Amino acid sequence: MFVYADHAATTEMSPVAIEKMTDALKTVWGNPSSLHTVGQEAKVVLEKAREEIAAVLGAEPREITFTSGGSESDNQAILSAVALGAAKGKKHIVSTKFEHHAVLHTLQKLEKQGYEVTYLDVHQNGIVAAEDVAAAIRPDTALVTVMFANNEIGTIQPVREIGAVCRQAGVLFHTDAVQAVGHLPINVRDDNIDLLSLSAHKFHGPKGIGVLYARRGVRLSSLIEGGAQERGKRAGTENIPAIVGMAAALTEAAENMEANTAKVTAMREKLIRGLRGIPYAHLNGDRTRRVPGTVNFCFEGIEGESLLLLLDAKGISASSGSACTSGSLDPSHVLLALGLPHEVAHGSLRLSIDETNTDAEVDYMIRSVEEVVSYLRRMSPVWEDLENGKRKHFFAEYESEEK
Ligand SMILES: *Cc1c(COP(=O)(O)O)cnc(C)c1O
Predict the structure, then answer these.
(1) pLDDT tens digit string along 248-304?
(2) Domain map of the chain by residue range?
(3) Does domain 57-238 have CATH number 3.90.1150.10?
């Protein structure tokens, strides 16, 4: 059996999006900046896609800037907010310990340039408290950046409450919503969001295309200089076929969201129940406040890398966390932020499913993970120490359902 369970890393394109995109590749090749008919026809298609995306987010078309994806949007959002703050002498930023590296590395770069960043704790459940954000805001705070849903453990943050706290304090609020858009209902107005990043390939759209939403009145600084495309905020001829594919994928995801959520949540619950049947297994992050499809477990006494390779041999594509950290020997910064010790954080597994998965695949994953975990434990010196009491177990043998 082949099971793709790494939808938090990327998704397969939807057939509808492929069709619209290939159609645009063939027919909409004009440069939308050209004044002639071919160019203006492309401009119409571009603006129609912008309207379509704005409508799904509850935004105005002029608040939508096309970028190359989530990473670029995160960079531009943060650097723009910081530039606006610096003009007023504000050099402090509030964020969390478990952001995506596109956010964290940008913040680290700013720290080297003299900015100060407060990295909030995300507690054991993987959720930052809005009160903690409120307490961290200072008179010189230029920006709060907190992700909508975490890419490794799937926990959803109280974005609307955090946004309200920021509004009250007069601080700009950015959210990396790459794991949330297309999967959770989002309305930038109701959710008090000033800046939002999204990426098409996380909701069955093409790779290399994304959006930075900036509320009207929030001035973006450009990362790429050149022509006056995107209202002068992002130079370079627009990738219209990819933009068309993204708009189609987003509209489709929004239309099917309710049905998909019901189906995927039911499969996820079955997956959680099944994996909790493995001794000394632990579900990372809040039990229920999570995106429909992402689960992340730690299994004591094993290495996540070996687990992944053996699962791959059984036809299962999974991850130990974010695609960006796999291959490195450091344990995930997200799991460490939850307070897990290094040796436990090493034994992690992320399974991210969506509506294209099936119940039979969930059964197969549960069976396969059980087999592989017990196989690896038979060969693990750490597990032997745990069994004969030389080392203490970190988790209870079985987690209670209520938790
Ligand atoms: C995938 C991801 C990104 C990066 O998006 P790209 O389009 O691949 O650059 C940023 N943030 C989160 C939370 C992600 O999951």
Answers:
(1) 999 999 999 999 999 999 999 999 999 999 999 999 999 999 999 999 999 999 999
(2) 57-238, 256-402
(3) no
Axis-axis angle for helices 240-255, 15-27 (nearest 10)? 150
Residues with C-beta less than 6 Å from any ligand 1 atom: 69-71, 74, 100, 102, 147, 151, 176, 178-179, 199, 202, 210
Instruction: Enter the pTM of the model.
Output: 0.97
Q: Is the pLDDT of residue 322 over 80?
A: no
* Cα of 214 vs its chain's centroid, Å: 18
Domain 256-402 matching CATH 3.90.1150.10: the answer reads yes
DSSP string, 186-241: --TTTTT-SEEEEEGGGTTS-SS-EEEEE-TT-PPPPSS-SS-TGGGTS-S---HH
Which residue's alpha carbon is at the smallest distance from atom 10 of ligand 1? 70
Does the active-site annotation cover 324?
A: yes
Cα 302 from Cα 383, distance rounded (Å): 7
Cα 246 to ligand 1 centroid, rounded to whole Å:
15
> What is the Å distance from ligand 1's center to 199 Cα?
6
pLDDT at residue 64 above 80? Answer: yes
Using the structure block, give the residue that is written with the tokens 């606006």: 84
pLDDT at 69: 98
CB 118 within 8 A of CB 70: no
CA angle 126, 106, 13 (to 5 degrees): 70
Res 325: pLDDT: 46
pLDDT in tens, 90-110: 999 999 999 999 999 999 999
Tokens of 94: 């509030």
Cα 344 to averaged position of ligand 1 atoms, centre (Å): 25
The single residue of 324, 336, 358, 363 carrying the catalytic annotation is 324
Phi, psi of 125 (to 5 degrees): -90, 0
Q: Say how far apart CA 119 and CA 399 lie, in whole Å.
A: 30
**For a substitution probing ligand 1, which of 176, 184, 334 has the most ligand atoms within 8 Å of its CB?**
176
Sign of the C-alpha dihedral, residues 323, 325, 329, 330? negative
Residue 323 has a pLDDT of 47
> Could you identify the atom of ligand 1 that is nearest to the CA of residue 9?
1
Residue of 363, 399, 359, 349 whose CA lies nearest to 274: 363
